[in-house]
C-alpha cells in the first residue's frame, strides 16, 4: 500500500467515528395512539400557548406556584398563573355533608381577563406573574398585600394587587397597566363559577341560586331549577354577587362601575354535583386601568345580614332578602335585631325561637286581649243573632239589617275582633320571608331536626308527593298543622256562626291543611316557630279567659242598649256608619216596594 492510500483510509475511519459521536441519533417515530391523544387536545391550549409566547418578553417556562394566605375566617390560595385566586375556603362553615366549604374551587372556577393593547388583546390569565409575597398566617388585626407583576411585549407591565385582612370576607383587588391602551376598548373581565352543592336539597338549591346586581336598584337574574337564563344590562353595575342559598361570591366596583355586563346561569338537571354554572362578563374602562383607578373588592363569605350590612357598598345588605317592601322594615328594624340580641344570650337555636315567640306574643298581648273581648261580646250576642236568623230564614238582606240594628243598639263592632288579628299578620308574613334566609339557623340542630335552616325529614317516602310535599314528611309541619286545627277548634267553640256564603268555621280547618302542603319543605325553624306560636296563643286565650268576667261584659252591653235607646250615649263612628247604612237600606226597600206596587197596577 502506498502512502496516499494509507492516509485516505485513516481519514475515512476518522470520519466514520466522528459521525457516530457527533451526529445525534434519529428520533423514534411517535406511536399512533399518542398522536391521536395529542390531536384530541382542545384548540384553546394551542392558541393560549401561541398568545403567551408572542406577547411575553421572557419565553422561559416558569413553573406554576401557589401562594397560601390563612386568616381567621378563610384560607385563600393564589397562583402565579394569571395572578388570580385559585381557591377560597371558608373555615367557619361546612357543606351539608360536613366537607370543607369552597366558594372558589380549583377545578370549578375560572377568572379570565383580556387586556387590549396596541398589538392585540392579551389574555392575562394565561401569563405568568411574579411576586415577592410569601405564604402567611395572619393575625386577626393584621393584613397582607400581594402584588403580582408581569411584563408584556413592548415593555408594557401589568400589576395586580390584592389586600387580604386577618378577619372578614372582603379582599381588595386592583389592576394597573403601563403604556398606551386603546381608548375605545374595555378590559374584559369574565368570571366562570360552578356552584357546588352546599345544602342538602339540590332542587331547592336550584330554585334560589342566582346573580344579584346593583345599578340604581337591586336586580336579579331570573331563577329556574330547570332552564338556562341570561340577562344583559347597559346600565353601569356597581356590584354583583353570585348568590348561593346562604353564601355570596361577588365583586364590588369602588369608583369605576362595570359596563356592558352580561350574566348567564346554565343548569344541567342531570348533574348531581354542580347546582348551576354562573358566567359573568363585564367591561372595565381602560383609562381606569392606566391610571391605577381600577380598584375593586371581592366579597367571598356568608350572606349574613349583620355582616353584609357592614360592607362598604351601596345597599349591599339587600343580598339578604327580607320580604316585600312593606314587610322589610319589620324584619330589618325589629325581628333581625331582636334575633341577634337573643342570640347573644342563648346558644341553642330551638330555645332561641321559643324565646322569640314569647317576646313577640307578650308584645302583642294588648291586641290579643282586645280580640278576646270582642269574641266574648259576639258570644254573648249569639242567642239574639241566632234568633234573628231563625226569624228571617228566607230574607238574607233582612237578616243583615236586623243584625246591624243589634250591633248599633249594644255598641258592638263585629270587625273589632278582626283588627287585632290583622295587626299581627305582618309579623307572621315577615317571619315567612325571614327564616328561609337566616344563615344563623344553618346546621343548627334541635330535637330531631339536624338542621333548622331546612326541613326536618322525619319520615322518608319511597315516592314523590305533588303540591310541595316531596318525598318526606316534616314532623314540625305536622305539629304546626295539628296546633292550627286545635286553635281553630277552640275559636269555633267560642265564636257564634256568622252568616254568609263562606263557612268561616270550616275554613279554619281547611287553611291549616293547605299550609301543611306549602310549608312541608320550608325550614324547620319556621314551622317550629308557628307551632310554638299557636300553643302560646291558645295559652294566652285561656289565661285571659280566667280574668274576664263575661257577666260584666253582658251588663255593659245592656247598659249601652238602654243609653242608645234614650239617646244618652254618644254614637261612635262605627255606630254612625251603621245608622246611615240602615237608613239607606230602608229607603232602598221602600223604593223597591213602591216600584212593585206601580208594576202590579199596570
TrEMBL record:
Domain Membrane insertase YidC/Oxa/ALB C-terminal, chain residue ranges per copy = 349-546
Q: Where is the Membrane insertase YidC N-terminal domain?
A: 68-333
Instruction: Give me the Gene Ontology terms describing cellular component.
Output: plasma membrane
**How does the UniProt record describe the way this protein sits in the membrane?**
Multi-pass membrane protein
Regions crossing the membrane: 5-22, 349-369, 412-435, 469-490, 502-522
Keyword line? Cell membrane, Chaperone, Membrane, Protein transport, Transmembrane, Transmembrane helix, Transport
Q: What role does this protein play?
A: Required for the insertion and/or proper folding and/or complex formation of integral membrane proteins into the membrane. Involved in integration of membrane proteins that insert both dependently and independently of the Sec translocase complex, as well as at least some lipoproteins. Aids folding of multispanning membrane proteins.
Q: Matching PANTHER family, A to Z? A: CYTOCHROME C OXIDASE ASSEMBLY PROTEIN COX18, MITOCHONDRIAL, OXA1
Record-given protein name: Membrane protein insertase YidC
Q: Which species is this record about?
A: Dyadobacter jiangsuensis
Q: From the UniProt record, report the name of the gene that encodes this protein.
A: yidC
